[in-house]
Amino acid sequence: MNRAARFFKNADSCQGTPVIHILYFVLILIAPFVGVNFLFLLSIILFLIIRFSGISFSSGRDVTSLTFSLSLMLFVSIILESSSYAYPFYIVLSAFAVAAVGNHKTSFSETDPALDSSSRRYRGIKKRSFSILWSSAFLALRIAAAFFAASWIIYWQKLSVSYNLVFFIAVIGAVTGSLFESIPSKIDKNISVSLGAGMMMWIFEEFRYWVPPEEMVVALVFSFFLGVLAYRAKIADVSALLSAALLGVLIIVFSGLSWFLLLLTFFILGGGFTRYKYAYKESIGIGQAKDGIRSYENVFSNSTAALVLAVAYGVFPEHSLPIVYAYMGTVATATGDTLASEIGTTAKGKPRMITTLKLSEPGTDGAVSLLGELAAIFGSAAIGILSYILGVSDNLILTVLITTAGGFFGTNVDSLLGATLQKRSLLSNSGVNFVATFVGAGISAGLYYLIT
Q1: Are strands 121-127 and 367-368 parallel, antiparallel or unpaired?
Q2: Which of 210, 233, 268 is the last residue of a domain?
Q3: Residue 170 belongs to some domain of the structure
Q4: Are 405 and 444 in contact (CB under 8 A)?
């Protein structure tokens, strides 16, 4: 083991010699011929060599954690091999390829650990620039690497898996991995990127649903471009950009462009009205943090229900109508709640608590005002009308009535949760939004069944 350690150390010290990347490439090349069990054993040996030899690679990556993540995924694949929930070998290698490409310090993260010169330890973070051009190329490289790794296994092991499906999950895995990389976390990026990408690829592989590669590329480029515009307009940070790209790809391919445009309307209205009388809101201490710039947390807390319903629409077409109305209801809830908060807090006079009707201060969790309630109705109705215009639904009156009702009641459920569970610190603001959007969806779906 000492000889191996000296080899890696000496080889990596050579300027411009990406030894570790060559090693990763070799692991992928031999994978279909040696099988999952032998590769698992090999990854364990490699992990032990690197872990206990004290090697420090010049690439600045924590090679130990990446090798550990490969070993962990291979172990899961072996354990589940004979079960009905098998973790395919080709997905393990594809997810590993996503994490192995490049250097996590120079791609999607807007922050780096700040080095304490006295202790030589990393403390805090430092801000750095984010290159959209470089990151776009990096994302494309990750997609190519994920596709190659999976296709290599499938070809040589003669698996009956469509290459269209492989490309589909390669895009999902690459975007998911990049998203995990952009999220500030104490978990090593080599672990979160590979495991996050692998989990998403595994989930969507189970659906056996895909679209032609050209449609997938168009969906990715379109949603990524819109995310870039939001980033440039300072509506979203990098994590929100990538979250929007992932949402866009999945919603477009499972349910259609019109569904994504409807959800996009929420983000546009939310971002726009966050700036509404922002100076006044900031002066009384209720302005959005980070100047109203949205992060991944805001995106997913308001859009997870929409994503689930969009995927369900593609997977369960026999239940399409209630899913359509539930989708409109969840988007209406997110829109109505945002407009109620951003416009309602500017009302003259104090709001009242939704639980006791006692006067309260603007911005208090669970406080409502007449202006805010009207804003919620307006936002929900706007989503209903736009749903009809975009062709999401073909019945104008029914769409507007059900969507407005779902959005209005969902918004007030949000306020009720804010006044109770959030006030007791049982739910965060994101948690409240998450629950309320599912409730809004349920109300709209329930009304559809009652009326029809």
Answers
A1: unpaired
A2: 210
A3: yes
A4: yes
